[in-house]
Write a structure and sequence with these properties.
This protein is mostly beta strands and about 850 residues long. The chain has a 22-stranded antiparallel β-barrel.
Length: about 850
Amino acid sequence: MRKKSELTLTLMMAASFGTLALASALAQSAAPAPPPADASAAAAIAPVALPEVDVVSPTPVPGAVGVDRNTQPAFISTVTGQQFTEKKSPAVTDALTAHVPAAIGINVDGTDLSPDFFYRGFDASRISGTAQGLAIYQNGVRINEAFGDSVNLDLIPPIAIDRADVYTNNPIFGLNALGGAVNFTMKNGFTYQGGEASVMGGSYGRAYGTLEYGKQFGDYAVYFATDALSDGGYRPFGAQNLQRAYLDLGYRTQDAELHAIGSFARTWLGVQGVTPMVLVDQQYNSVFTTPQTTNNQAGLAQLTGLFDLGAKWSLASNFYFRQFDQYHVDGNDADVTDCDEIGGTPGTACLDTDGFTGKHKPNDFQFTNHGQPIPFMTGVGIDGNFPYGTTAFTATHTSTFGTQQQLTNKEKVFDLDNYFVVGGSVDQSYTHFSSYTKLGQLNSDFQNIFTGFPGSGAILETQGDVGFAPVWVHAQATYFGVFALDTVNVTKELALTAGARFNVANIALMDASGQQPENNTNNSYNRINPVVGFTYTVSPALTFYGGYSEANRAPTPLESQCSNPNLPCVLETALVSDPPLQQVVSHTWEGGVRGALAIPGGDYGTLSYNAGVFHIVNKNDIVNEASPISGQGYFANVPSTLRQGVELALRYDYGPVSVYANYAHINATYQFDATISSPNNPYANDDGNIFVHPGNHIPGIPSNLAKFGVTYAVTPQIKLTAEAVLVGAQYYVGDDSNQNPRLPSYYYVNLRGTYDVTDQIQLFGLINNVTNNHYATYGAFYGTDTTGGYVNQTLFNNNPDNGLVKVGDARAVTVAQPISVYAGFKVRF
C-alpha cells in the first residue's frame, strides 16, 4: 500500500512538472514583444500599467491585513458578492457550486436551502452523523456547531455576503480544515453603498424578498440586510420558511477601524429524506416516514477591530457571542417484534434483534413505558401486522463565546518583502442537549401518528437501555489555537511560505438527568499542524505553486459518546459511555499553475485560469456505521482514507460576454481492509456486514464535477445567462464495498435574465432545471422488511420475507426538484 501511495505521488508530481513546458510557452506568448529600436525612446517615457494585486487573508481573523494571492501555495477560489446576488437564490451553496471547481451542494434530504456542501470529497453538513471535514467561518466566527461539528448554511443570507474565499492547504483555519476552509466575509457600509429591494415568486408557492442598504457618513458607516422566504416544497411535507437579518455599524479613522455586528436567522425546513425507489417509480415526488422537520435559530453579536500600530505592525481583533438553537423531529419506521420471537416474555413488544450481535438477555430488548412492558399489537395492517413507527425529538441549545487576536507585520526582512502573522483564538461552547423517542403508528401516508393503541405516545426505553433511552446532557467544548505564518519573497519571482498552528480541544460531557452517570466524560486532544509551500511567478500569466500541510479534527461530544457497536445510538437521540475516539489528521500535498492574460493579437478579452492537483490522506478518519436497528448507528475510527484529484477553473471575459468553465475529478477511497456494518446493503452477510478493501470508493462522493456558464449582455439593459452543472456517478451510502450499481450521473441547466427598465427598476426571471430532468441527487439503502409495508402494498410486495420476490429493491433516493419558474423585480434606491 505504501508503494502504491508513493507511485501516486510520483505520478502527480510528474503531471505537475509536466505542464512546465506548455505553461512556459504560454508565459512567453503572453509576454509583450520588445519594442523596435526606433521606438525605444518613446517606450522609455510611456506609462507602465502595473498588474492589479489580488489580496486575500490567509487566516480567518476578520479585517486582518491581507497578502498577495499569487504568493499563497494553494488553490484559492473566491466567489464575489455580485456572483451571490446574480444567482437570485436564498441558498449560499448555489453560487459556491457554480464557481468553485471541486465544490458541489448535494440535496440529501429534500431541502435546497441547506444541502450538504462537498469540497474535494469533504463534507460540511447540517446532518449529525456526517463525517465533517471542512471549517466554515462567517466574518471570522467559526460556525461548525460545537456539539456535532455540523454546519447550518441556511442561516447565512447570501445578499449580505461581500465575498467567500475557499482555502486549501492551510491549517491556520484551525479544527476541521481537513479538506479546506470557507470564510464568508460580510458586507459593511464602507464596502457597500446604496440600497436595493427585490421580490420574487413562482413554482411551488415560493415567495422570496430581500432588502439591503449601506451608507457612509464621514468616518461612520451602516449596513443592513434582511431576507424572507416562504416555499411550499416540491415534495409533500417539504415546506420551508426563513427570516434572516444582518446589521453592521462601522467607524473608521486613519489608523483604526471598528465594527459592531449583529445578526439573526430563523429557518423551518421540511426535510423528508430518502424514499424507497419502488415508491419513486410510482410517483416521482413521493416521501417516506414523516414528520421530518428541522427548526434552526441563531443570533450573533460581534465586535471587530483593525488597529495600525505603526512600524508596519497592525492588530486585528475579534470578540463574539453566538447562540444556536435547533429542534429536530425525525419520524421513522420501527423495529418492533413480539418478545416471544426472541425468547422473551410473550405478548409484549421488543426491539427486533435480527442481526444484532450484542451480549444481552432477551428481555433487555423489551420496550417499557414508565417501567411497565408495552403490549405487542397485531391485526391492523396488511396481512395482520401492526404498522409501528417511531418519532424522535431532539433539542440542542448552544452558547459560544470567542475571541481571535492577530498581529501582522509587513516590514522587509534583509531587504526582502515579507508578510508575517502571529495570533491565537479561544472558543468556549456550552451545549444543553435533550432527546427522546415516542412510539407511534404509520398511516397510509407514512405519517407517524399517536392513535390510542396500547403504548401509543410512550417515551421509549428498553430494559437493557439498548438503543432507546431519553437523554439530557450538558456538553462543554473549549478550543484553543495559536498560530504563526510567514511568506517571504526570496526573489521577485519566488515566494516561500511556512507556518504552523497548535490546536487544543477539551471536550466534556455531563449527565443532567441523574440516571446516566456513565455519560460523564472528559477528553482532551492537541496537535501542531505545519504548512510549507512555494510560489514561482514567471509573469502575471503564469505562476507555479506547491505545498504540504497537516490539519486535525477532534471528535465531537456526539461522536465520542456514540462509538460502541454493541450500544448503538439513534443519531442525535441517544448517547452512551463509549470507548474514546482518536482525532483525525489529514496530510495534504498539492500543486499547480495559475495566471491571467490578455489574449494576444488585439483586444480579444482576458483569460484567467487555475489548474491544480491534490493528494489528501486522512489518518484515523471517523465514519458513521449503520446498526441493525433502524435509524441507528455508531461512530468508529478507520485507519486511512484518501482523496486525490484535479481541479481546473477557467474564466473568459470579452466585451458583453463572460464565460466560465470549471472541472474537478475526485477519487475518494478507503485505504484499509475491514468489516463494516451495513445491514440494509443487499450484499451484506447474515450478520449485516460488508467487507471493505483498499481502493474501494467512499460512497456519496461524485467522481466528476463539471460546471459551465455564459452571460451575454444583449444590450446595456438586457442580460441573459445560461448555466449547466454535470455531476458524476456516486455509490449509494452504505455501499462501502462497491458491489451495487452506482447512483447515475445527472445534469441540470438553469436560465435567467434581467431587464433594467430604468436605472432604478429591474425585472428578472429564472428557469431552474429547464429540461425538467428527473434524477436522484443522493442514494442510500432501506430495510425492505420495513413496517411501512404493513400500510403500503408496494412495499409489502417488495419484501422478500413475504415470498413475493426473491430479492427486494433496497435502493432509496432523494429526487431533485423538477422544472421551476420564478419571476420578480428589484428596485434600487
